[in-house]
Amino acid sequence: MKLSDMITHDQLLEEELQDPAFRTEWERTALARAVAIQVVRFRGERRLTQKALAESLGMKQPQIARLESGEHNPSIETLARLAGVMGVEFNIDIRPHGRRPRLVTKRAQTDAAVTAFESQAADVSLSAV
Fold first, then answer.
1. Which among 110, 109, 107, 81 has a CA at the least distance from the CA of 95?
2. Following DSSP, what letter does each residue of 9-62 receive, concatenated?
3. Tens digits of residue pLDDT in 18-73
C-alpha cells in the first residue's frame, strides 16, 4: 500500500462518526480525552512518572492511568486538584444546542480550545490555559 492511498486520522474519524453508537461514545468521552492530553503533556514536559504525579495530587497511580486513558470523565474535584498542581485553568462551557457562548472569553473559544463538540441536546467546549 502506498502512503498516498492511506487515509488520515481525521478521515477515519469522520467515517467512524457516521456510526451513531460510536458518535455517542465519542461525545461522552470528549472531556476525558481533553483532560488526558493535558495530563500526559504535563507529565511528559516534567518527566514525571504516573506515581510521582499521583503523589503530588494526593491520588494513587492507577487513578492517573485512568485519567490518561481518556475513557472516564473526571470529577470536578479531580479537575480542581489537577488545576492546583498543574497550574492549568480548565474552562468548561456547556450550553443548549445552538446557543452562542456568552460567558466564555474569545481566547478560551479559539486559542485555548482543547475540544468542542455538539450533541443533540447541548454544545460543550473545554479550554485549558
1. 109
2. HHHHHHHHTTSHHHHHHHHHTHHHHHHHHHHHHHHHHHT--HHHHHHHHT--HH
3. 999 998 888 888 888 889 988 999 999 999 999 999 999 999 999 999 999 999 98
Q: How far is C-alpha 22 from the geometric centre of its chain's CA atoms?
A: 17
- CA–CA distance, 56 with 59 (Å, rounded to integer): 8
Return the C-alpha cell found at 18. Answer: 457516521
| pTM, full prediction | 0.73
Q: Name, in order, each residue with C-beta under 8 angstroms of 123's C-beta and a sequence gap of 6 or more.
A: 93, 94, 95, 96, 97, 98, 99, 116, 117
Domains in the chain, please, with CATH?
Answer: 3-128 (1.10.260.40)
Cell digits for 10?
A: 481525521
Q: Dig out the grid coordinates for 49 from the structure.
A: 512518572
Give just the sign of the alpha carbon dihedral 39, 63, 20, 123.
negative
